[in-house]
Specification:
Blueprint: H1 10-16, H2 21-24, E1 28-32, E2 36-43, H3 56-74, E3 80-91, E4 98-109, E5 113-121, E6 127-139
């Protein structure tokens, strides 16, 4: 049984990322599971650091994007929204080219906070980054 509030489609999610950082970095959501999201990001001139490998900040941006999207998909957006409180990442191996794939999985979905784990793999399927984000669930202010 899916944990999402409503029935989000990949097209709707991808369109929401078009004119902001995820769109500029080439991120795309490729799968919506019952309790996880999968997305990709190219390793190219937009996302590499000066030494020619994937920039750690780009990996963190991918992790935060998936974690934030997932967290907000769990709540009723007419009553709540989710914002990042803390994120950490361990960069395990360099990625010089290709497309990285990230999977955000729910660790804890509570009334006032959520924790998501994001694992990013290189084009060969090797784990290159593992991240965890804590999200605050905030009530929408009354008008």
């Amino acid at each position: 049984m899916a944990i999402w509030h409503g029935n989000p489609t990949m097209d709707e999610i991808n369109q929401s990322m078009g004119n902001c950082m995820p769109g500029y970095l080439g991120m795309k959501i490729t799968e919506v599971g019952d309790d996880y999201l999968v997305g990709t990001m190219p390793v190219d001139d937009r996302t590499r650091q000066p030494f020619g490998i994937l920039h750690g900040g780009a990996s963190v941006a991918l992790a935060e994007t998936l974690g934030s999207l997932a967290a907000n998909m769990v709540v009723d957006n007419s009553k709540f929204y989710c914002v990042g409180q803390e994120i950490n990442a361990n960069h395990l191996r360099p990625v010089p080219e290709g497309v990285v794939t990230a999977k955000a999985s729910a660790v804890h979905v509570g009334r006032s906070s959520q924790v998501w784990e994001i694992r990013i793999h290189d084009p060969k399927g090797k784990l290159n980054c593992i991240s965890r984000i804590t999200m605050a669930v905030v009530p929408v202010p009354s008008q």
